[in-house]
Amino acid sequence: MKYEEIIECQFSTMKDKELHFHQEPEIIYLLDGELTVSGENMSHLLKKDDFLVANSNVRHEWHGSGDLLIGSIFINYNLLTEMFSGEQIYFLCDSTREKSEEYEKMRYYIRQIFNYYQTTEGQAILLRRSISYQMLYLLTSAFIVKKGMSHYDSMRGISDERMSEILNYIMSHYQEQITLQELADKLYLSNAYLSKYIKRNFGLSFLKLVNNIRMEYAMGQLIYTDKSIIKIAMDNGFSNLAGFNRTFKEIYKQTPAEYREEMQKKAEKPRQEENSEEILERVEQYLTRNKVNAPEEADLTVSALECDVKQETSFEKNWKRMINIGPAEALLQYDVREQLLYLKSSLGFEYVRFWNFLSDEMMIFLDENKTKFNFTRIDKIFDFLVQNGIRPYIEMGFKAKEVYQNVHKMLIDTDNKYQLEIIEKNKGFLEELILHLVMRYGVEEVKHWYVELEKNSIMRAYVEPEKYFNSFEIICGIFKTYVPEIRVGGAGFCLNYPDEDLKVILEKWKKRKIQPDFISLYSYPYIMDEKLLEAGRNSYASDRNYLRNQIQEAREIMDEAGFSAELHVTEWSNTLSNRNVLNDGCYKGAYVMRNLIQNTGEADLIGYWLGSDLFSDYYDTKRILHGGCGLLTKDGIRKPAYYALRFLASLGSYFLGMNENAIVTYTERKQISICCHNYKHFNFRYYLIEEDEIEIERQAGMYEDNEKLQMTFRLKNLSDGKYQVKICSVNEEFGNIQTEWKKMGYYNELTLEEMNYLRAVSQPNIHISQKTCSDGVLLVETTLSPQEIQRITVTEMM
């Protein structure tokens, strides 16, 4: 039986391979030793289990050392381009430059392919092909280079415009009898110059370059078609069969007929004969020593969780401690205050974070020569907060006003000049400020406050650590002189910022006289390495566990640097865009609940970005919903993300258990409280469109699947008897303002009565039932639709 493979494997111990290129994209995976892969102005050092993609027609070579073992996967060029309607596609995939869940999945797939490569059973062949397509789906989803990006041509092995013109011309005319003179005339160059240019840049003469390109097309026809050899020769630009045979033999050391016969025999032979027995034995040993484990993924169909109410432990709700609201001046606005008070009363957070505290809008003008200030507006803000039991979390830096349409485009960008250095010249002002706050609110109040000094904002210019440390020490030293217990920290680190090496900064900080009470972290899933972005990588990081991985990485770095300070995630969300419709719907609710459950206990504080859409109100926000990041719309209507936090806020103080989809707690009143979700991550479609271009009606097509989730909770050691089970659900049908707005025809000019109706109907569904506990065990079952979140309360009936 003949079947066509989309991938082929080769294993090698060859330490040096000269400069070469081939039509098939190649995944070079290092199983053992060290390997330097270079070419086309790049060089990569691969260590064990590193891998990269060498794109079609890109020249590369390698030089290895140690007990070298290399595995290569060649992707069938013809099949791949056929799937993409004939378009050549290129990849930027290099595990030496990045770390993400996608690379771990690629490793898993590659090693699985190696594992099944030598097997001949029909089921193993099917499994290998299945894994191959899964790997290619991931490769073309997460690592594809978009056509039109600045480095698209470099992925093709083209370093300048002239090389591109030469290749384009040859590829367009390779079936014809083209000459060096014709190409020279087209480029307005002399024959001699063009000949030397081609030799220098392609490493081949003009004729060999043309024949190599012809051979790339001819090879596929020899292997995968029944065309006669003379027809293949004529179809690919050779004037006669003798010339085709001669050229073929020069390159491949055999005639086309011999090559075709060999490939046909090879396809029928067991795969063990494709590589030497010695090399394949080493591959077998490698796979035995390095067991292939599947990446951890939730069961998307059925999930079960067993909890024992007699094995409770206390836990802190790190997501309840703080919420972001906006710049300081926003807290002077009536509607912002109203929404903040509502969030305080319903979610129970302790701190509110705001910034641009030292700004002209707050009547504070810092200057090197003459600083002017008036504390009236500051007093109005702190009076309001203190009187309502809300503690300030003050970001003392100079954060710009940024409202993103998408990650590449800002609607509002009022950049504040870099003023940290001015702080050094305003020690007297800082003393007056802290003295004023202590006199007005008392040490017993102020000592509970947090003061954060941001180093550089999420998308702004890099700030040298030494400059930052100087400013931080001045603020911290002065504030703690008057209020020793006030907590001062920073610096708003962003681990995906290419110039931000947290380990190096913390090691330097550890040597300073004054160190922070907490380290603050920003977490937005974007790739910010300009080299990667220019090369065509999508700016959105596709890691579904991005927040957890960032927190764990920060914890590890802090431990290595000897920092015992608290870790605060002061800003986090799935997007910077305030024009992304997913912010308004059920996806965001499931995203928030999943991440907060997953990161229970991982950080000391996790502050959601952000409380209200009033932050991003602008000329284009006349619509009821505009895709803002807020929990509440600008009109104060609750979104699914709000309900995610509301459900989580109702959890008890005693932890019973959790898994990927749920967390179970016990309250002081002996009530069991459960939060669960059916989160669905994005598929490739999300990464092919700008965030502000997503249409409300097309959201469902952007997720990995649309399967429902069946959850079963087995609760042990309860008293036998009747229990009330109350399930509050937010899904596409209930509690989703997008659905309710759709029923109103997406109409914007609503009356006050209609707005009140919209506010009233955007409520969760409530279902109440009775269950019987027997032999101390109570089973609670529920089904969740895609992106649905639920709060389940189980109460004993008296």
From TrEMBL:
Residue ranges occupied by any HTH araC/xylS-type domain in the UniProt entry: 164-262
Cross-referenced PROSITE patterns: HTH_ARAC_FAMILY_1, HTH_ARAC_FAMILY_2
Domain of life: Bacteria
GO molecular function: DNA-binding transcription factor activity; hydrolase activity, acting on glycosyl bonds; sequence-specific DNA binding
Keyword annotations of the record: DNA-binding, Glycosidase, Hydrolase, Transcription, Transcription regulation
InterPro entries, alphabetized: Cupin_2, GH, GH39_cat, Homeodomain-like_sf, HTH_AraC, HTH_AraC-typ_CS, RmlC-like_jellyroll, RmlC_Cupin_sf
Pfam families named among the record's database cross-references: Cupin_2, Glyco_hydro_39, HTH_18
Family: Belongs to the glycosyl hydrolase 39 family.
Protein name (record): Helix-turn-helix domain-containing protein
Natural source organism: Mediterraneibacter catenae
